[in-house]
Amino acid sequence: MPDAQKMFERITLPRDAGLPVSLCNVSKTYRTGFGLPVHALNLVSLRVPSGQALAITGPSGSGKSTLLHLVGAMDTPDEGSITVGELELARLQERERAAFRSQIGFVFQRFHLLPALTALDNVAAPLLPLKVGFDKQQRARELLAAVGLSGRERDLPSHLSGGEQQRVAIARALVNSPGLLFADEPTGDLDSRTGAKVMGALLELRSKRGLTLLIATHDAGLASRCDRVIELLDGQIVSDSEG
Ligand SMILES: Nc1ncnc2c1ncn2[C@@H]1O[C@H](COP(=O)(O)OP(=O)(O)O)[C@@H](O)[C@H]1O
Ligand SMILES: [Mg+2]
Fold first, then answer.
1. pLDDT (tens digit, 9 = 90+) per residue, 7-35?
2. Whose C-alpha lies nearest to ligand 1, atom 18?
C-alpha cells in the first residue's frame, strides 16, 4: 500500500455527526513588511460542538480567515492548541497534516473551478490521486444532485451562473465525505438572493451529511441563519451569541 494511502487511513476521522473543534488560547502573529507585528489572532478560545453551524463575523482584517486556516491545518499557531475530533493538530507530522487536510472541506469566495473540466469532473478531481472503494463518478453525481445540480454534470463552469459554480465548489468540497467544512466568505461574490440560496444549501447539507460548518461572512443576515454567531475584532472574540 502506498505511504500516503496508509497515512490517510491511519488518521481517518469519524464522520457521522460532524467533527467537534476546539481552540484553546490560540494566537497568531504576522510580521508586516516593516517588521511590525500584526496580532491576527490573540488568545482565542472556542468550542464548536459536533454538527454546529458557526458563523464567524467581523470586519475585514479581524482574523476570520486566519482562524479558518489554522483549524484547517493550512497554517500553525504561535501558541495555544487546536483539536479537531480527537486530533491535536500540533502533534501531526507534516504528511499527517496533509492527510488531515484532505479529509476536511474548503469553500472559498472565488470558486476556483478548473475551467476546462465539466462540473462532474471538477467535483471528482480531488479523488483522482486516491484509491477508493467506491465509484468516483457516481459519488460526484450524487453530490451534484445534493446541491441541486442534477442534469448539469456535463456543463463547463463558464456555462454556469455564479451561484451554480459555487454549488459545484461545495459539492467538490464534500467529495471526501468530510466531517468539517470551512467556507470563507462563500457568498462574497454573489448577489444577495443567490447568496441566500448558497447559505441554504450549506445548512441543508450540514443536517443531511453530518457536518460541522465554520463560515466566515460579512453578511449579518446570512450569519443569523447559523446556529451561532461569533464576532471577531482585532483577533479577539468580542461577541458570541451562545455566550
Ligand atoms: N500571511 C500574512 N502575512 C502578513 N499578515 C497577514 C497574513 N495573513 C493575514 N495577515 C494579517 O492578519 C490580520 C487578519 O487577517 P485575516 O485573518 O485575513 O482577516 P479577515 O479574514 O477577517 O479579513 C490582518 O491584519 C491581515 O493583514
Ligand atoms: Mg478573510
1. 444 445 555 689 999 999 999 999 988 88
2. 65
